[in-house]
Batch of 2 targets.
Target 1
Amino acid sequence: MSVASKYDGIAYVYDLMDWPMEFLFYSRWRKEALLGLKGRVLEVGVGTGKNLEYYPQGCLVTGIDNSERMLEKARKRAEGMNNVTLLLMDAEHLEFPDNTFDYVVTTFVLCSVPDPVKALKEMRRVLKPEGEMVNLEHMRSSNRLLSWYEDLINPLIIAVTGIHVNRKTVENIEIAGFRVKEVKNLLIKDVFRKVRSKP
Ligand SMILES: C[S@@+](CC[C@H](N)C(=O)[O-])C[C@H]1O[C@@H](n2cnc3c(N)ncnc32)[C@H](O)[C@@H]1O
């Protein structure tokens, strides 16, 4: 089953499933990560649109996702927001010209995109040279016990949800050609991190 079909299947309960993490951590992290953004912003894997309320005024936001059902939820959230455009699109094949956006944002997406380096290369391509990428992601820890556990449960989590819990996301960002400027550990040592990078 494709990742898009999996998210189509859980779109109706996604916000409910995510609610405890949203309440305890994500909403605060989202607000902090998006503070200060301005200009043309591309959000890749916009999902049900949970970040939309946190973009500062002055942001012109384009959100893409390849799950139509997740986008339906995002469209409801975006009602009345005239600075938001939502499009069905694959992160690995972004349909924008080079150097289009001032910022690219992903939150909890690079764990489920089938080829994260390919998607990251696309994000780098559409970013302006002076632009910036902001990511909130969970990834493989540098702690040996945590990474052992992540490796252990990864096959089961992939089978059930399509999500990879042991991706080396900071390394993938660098492999895609970005210069990492900031990595902030957020939760469970360095499993959840905020990353800011330049193309
Ligand atoms: C865990 S959800 C996160 C949603 C949202 N960013 C958030 O913070 O709540 C991952 C999202 O990435 C989307 N996604 C996964 N692979 C994708 C791809 N190749 N192209 C576009 N979207 C993708 C999924 O459809 C899903 O909506």
Note: The chain has one domain: 3-198.
Target 2
Amino acid sequence: MRYIDKNTGKAEGNGITDDYLENECRTTDPLSDSVRYMNIDYSGSFTNKGYRGRMLELAMFTQKKYCCYCLRKIGNSKQATLEHIIPQNASSTSRYDQYGELSEGEIVLTKDYSLAHNQERPPYPHTIAWDNLVVSCKGQFPLDNSVSSHCCNNARGSLYAPPVYYLQDIESRITIMNDGSIHAKVGDCQDEIKSTIVAAKLNYTALKEIRRLWYELRNIPYREIVRCLYDRNQRMKILVYAFKDVDDFHSIFKYQKDDYWKVFMKYHLFYRIFKETY
Ligand SMILES: [Zn+2]
């Protein structure tokens, strides 16, 4: 995980929510002339009328196409999901509201917004609010024909996963071990970070293995790693170098397959992370 700055794109993101509410949800009471916003529906009109797509594209841009949890580089919006930090079905915003972006003044549960006497914004209804939406990958790996989600948004479901990527110094609060496992450092927010690591399953076997491989390759010039995409001899050379133990023989075989190598390359950010850390 690394810091996500929601101020970038905030005016535009809130603008998408405003457009949606004005165009799809606004009603006027003929007697009193008062305006109400009703039938806010993320899976329905918000998605069907293209607002979700606009929000996703904008968030992809501001996150430079990196998954908020595992830092996979997401190729295009078809491979991305929009994560609700406060889950869609949440009955309270408590424990999330300590983060400024999700504080009482910024975000309100959609059901409460729908009933509120005053519907001025902010606060924005949580299911369609810029600050409550981040881009996540689908958590898919080649091992099972990319059917299941093994980590990140879909694997998390509605589990408590506080947005620790809203902490500016999140990277310095995390340790990635040379076996590829990821841990919260002792200190403030340790429990919060731990909750998110567990909920998003960031120590899933395939993720750990990919991070370990980046660790092993941290001293190889990056262009030589890139070359492996097309040069299978080079790839074999590098894999034999990285997986020295006899027990690792199956890993060499696995990453010789193009599918695995391509997924591995989507985690290229770990090259820099390990180079800076070790
Ligand atoms: Zn991910």
Note: The two ends are 18 Å apart (CA to CA).
